[in-house]
Amino acid sequence: MTALAHFPKTLRIQQLNDALRTQFVGGQVLLTADFQSLPDEQQAALLLAIRHFNDFTPDNDPYGEHDFVAVELDGVQVFCKIDYYDPTLQQHSVDAANPVLTHRVMTVMLAAEY
Predict the structure, then answer these.
(1) Which of 11, 29, 80, 110 is in Cβ range 3.0-4.6 Å of 69 for a Cys bridge?
(2) Where would I find the beta strands (DSSP E) of 1-96?
């Protein structure tokens, strides 16, 4: 946990992001076409690696929100990015710590797509 995670709002964002990343609840999960072109077994293994990732540090999580993950399996590097939108998906959320005002979208992509 980063030092910033001690702030209540940041901690709440982190908890909501962790729920989406580890349990796929509290938002929408999108898989890019390139990710979906991988064999089903490889997709499943990479998604499991994302769900189990917990090696957050100040270097890879500077804001303490757990909104970005990079994993690699068998030479395939995948990124997972969580973005915060308003409930209509028309603009960014005004308060990412408030699930009523925020629709989370987690995009899973090959690193080369980033």
Answers:
(1) 80
(2) 27-31, 68-73, 76-85
pTM of the model: 0.92
Domain that holds residue 35: 3-113
Sorted by sequence, the CB contacts under 8 Å of residue 40 that are 6+ apart come out as none
Q: How many domains does the chain have?
A: 1
Residue 2: per-residue pLDDT: 54
Q: Nearest-CA neighbor of 32 among 86, 104, 106?
A: 106
Q: Are 78 and 50 in contact (CB under 8 A)?
A: yes
CA distance 78 to 60: 14
User: Which of 2-11, 60-69, 80-89 is predicted with the least confidence, judged by mean pLDDT?
Assistant: 2-11
Q: What angle do CA 47, 52, 54 make, to 5 degrees?
A: 130
